[in-house]
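Hi F.,

I've been meaning to write this up properly since the lab meeting, where we talked about keeping a consistent format for the predictions we share between groups. The idea is simple: the sequence comes first, exactly as it goes in, then the structure tokens exactly as they come out, then a line or two of notes. No screenshots and no reformatting. I'm using this chain as the first example so we have something concrete to point to.
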Amino acid sequence: MHEFALLLASALSAGTPLALASLGLLVNEKSGVVNLGAEGMMLMAAIAGFAVAVTTGNQWLAFGAGAAVGSLLAALVGLLVLWLGTNQYATGLALSLFGAGLSAFVGLDYVGRNLPPFGHVHIPLLSDLPFAGPALFSHHPMVYLTVLLALAIHLFLHRTRAGLVLRAVGESPQSAHALGYPVRRIRLLALMFGGALCGVAGAYLSVIYTPMWVQGMTAGRGWIALALTTFATWRPGRVLLGAYLFGGVTMLQFYFQGAGVQVPSQLLSMLPYVATIVVLALMSRNPVWIRVNMPASLGKVFRP
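Output, unedited:
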């Protein structure tokens, strides 16, 4: 029972950066823009957050630096895509390649350096419960903030006028423009919000989850976050579920290794990605379901 509680706790921690990045991508895709640069933004934010944490010793400043870097890179994508008319998919791929290369160069002086572990929350009474305490109530504050953020995004999209406008821009930018809404500025803000959350996810990886800098440490999580947004059919609650499911599958490899299961480590490392492929393959069997939930103008060019 104790081992299962630790596995559940590890799944929540491992799923948090995925949930953060996917929630950000969900918002900018709701506005009708696809940003394939999540991997590059997360890597750049990871090294920025790690550098700030090493310099200041403050984890919240590190998260702020990650959010700022991610938001600036997303703004660059917005400038290229929304005002200069470049292809959304090519621009996002270029950002991922750019972020991977630049983060490796910037992080040369930080390779091999470690951060002291930052404290997790201790909730009186709840954290001391036999099973639920270590599994649910002994995490870093960012884990709980991510859950609250998912709820806030759901309420924003479905219970506020601004959320309705954002969804309208994603469904029919021509109609929104005809009604007088600044479509490109709304999409830019959505992109920057998504980039900021990808940045926080990258900083969480390098500062909290594995407090060190390693080249390419996101290990494809940006791409998984993009797939997870589709898997969740652009719904925040399903994003959380999918992120924690992926986190649980990721932790299973370490559980199996600790239990002495005689399976090559390379096969165990493949588990999370195989699970993602299987889920997407199953979803693709019902394209109508995706088409009904997908923003109608997703990935399409809009010129006022």
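Notes:
The chain has 13 helices and no strands.
The two ends are 59 Å apart (CA to CA).

If this format works for you, I'll send the rest the same way.

G.
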